[in-house]
Amino acid sequence: MSTLSMLHDAVVAAFAAHGNRSPYFTAIDGLALLRSFSERHPNHLIHRPALCIVVQGAKWTTFGERRLHYRTSQAMVVSVEMPGASQVVHGAPDAPYLSAVIELDQAILREVYESMEAPPTPASDEHAAFVMELNEAILGCAARAVSLLGEPQAIPLLYPGVKRELCYRLLAGPHGAVFARMVVGAERNRRLVEAIHALRGNFDKQVRVDDLAALAGLSPTAFHRQFKAMTAMTPVQFQKQIRLMEARRLMLSREMSAETVAFEVGYASPSQFSREYARLFGAPPRRDIGKLLSS
Predict the structure, then answer these.
(1) Which helix (H) or strand (E) holds 244?
(2) Which of 80, 144, 247, 255 could pair with 128 as two cysteines, CB 3.0-4.6 Å apart?
(3) 32 within 8 A of 168, measured Cβ to Cβ
(4) Strand residue runs (E) in the chain
(5) What pLDDT digit, counting tens, does each position of 93-115 carry?
(6) Closest CA to 163 of 108, 81, 101
(7) Is the entire prediction scored with pTM above 0.85?
(8) How many secondary structure helices (H) and strands (E) does the chain include?
(9) DSSP label at residue 63
(10) Separation between Cα atoms, residue 54 and residue 73, nearest integer Å
């Protein structure tokens, strides 16, 4: 049996044992399983650094102006927390879309990198997300991780080793230079990522691009150019998407009104908030939230 078949069977078994609900946030911290029986409308969310493995089917994810397509035996890798929209494009009742999302532990990546006899040289490519082909070794790590869900008592003993091996396979594989960049990176990239984190953490405040540029050690013009090269968004677009996604979450979880949530996430004008919300999600806040709650 191939490692892909092993992973497929482990994901199917995990869903069956869990009650077939998707997404399934498993007992393993940082491991989630996804399933869809049909093509879905875009799902807007804030992506954390992770390996998004397609076990069956196909999907696309858009970050700003950049769209990534990935399918069975491929994975999308996200290295920086950022907003995006994803849509399943291949999923059917007899062959649902299946995915395993494994968050990347940068502390373990660094530990493994520093322990390697000949670690890869960090790449200079600045994209914060890319698609990679998966080899047998990486698929095997994912299959063992998901299989552990059937042995809850073994998770704390065995999963740390699986996670460490996965980090090694990623660093030692064809894209090792990109993962090495995530660990060490150039000084410019490291400080740029710090600026992105600062914008993410202060999404509801007025943040001056000049201040972010200074944090990144760049001129405002260079910061704007390199920010967009990494995230495929301008700083303003990045902040706007974070605000709107957080607003949607608050309206769903706390039943807040559109006007109240507009101020909560940093908008000065509820009408501007409603316009930009409809532009991103396809409907004004009240109609969009009503549709989500009734689905």
Answers:
(1) helix 235-254
(2) 80
(3) no
(4) 24-25, 31-36, 43-47, 50-56, 58-63, 66-71, 74-78, 82-90, 97-103, 129-133
(5) 889 999 999 999 989 999 999 99
(6) 108
(7) yes
(8) 12, 10
(9) E
(10) 6
